[in-house]
Specification:
The chain is mainly α. The chain is built from two helices and no strands. The chain has one domain.
């Protein structure tokens, strides 16, 4: 998921360089949403791992 957030961010940068403002704004919005979903799932997986008695990864 983090890969797709990075892909949309790169698309946004390229679109902004070429002057496609609407496409750039949409791609940045998608990248932000995907990044925060990734972040929430990562934190959730850490919490579940700790509650199950495992060590958090280093």
């Amino acid at each position: 998921m983090l890969y797709w957030a990075l892909v949309f961010f790169i698309i946004a940068v390229i679109a902004a360089v070429f002057g496609f403002g609407g496409i750039a704004v949409a791609a940045v919005g998608i990248a932000k949403i995907l990044f925060f979903i990734f972040l929430a799932l990562f934190v959730l997986s850490l919490v579940v791992h700790v509650l199950r008695g495992g060590r958090p990864p280093v």
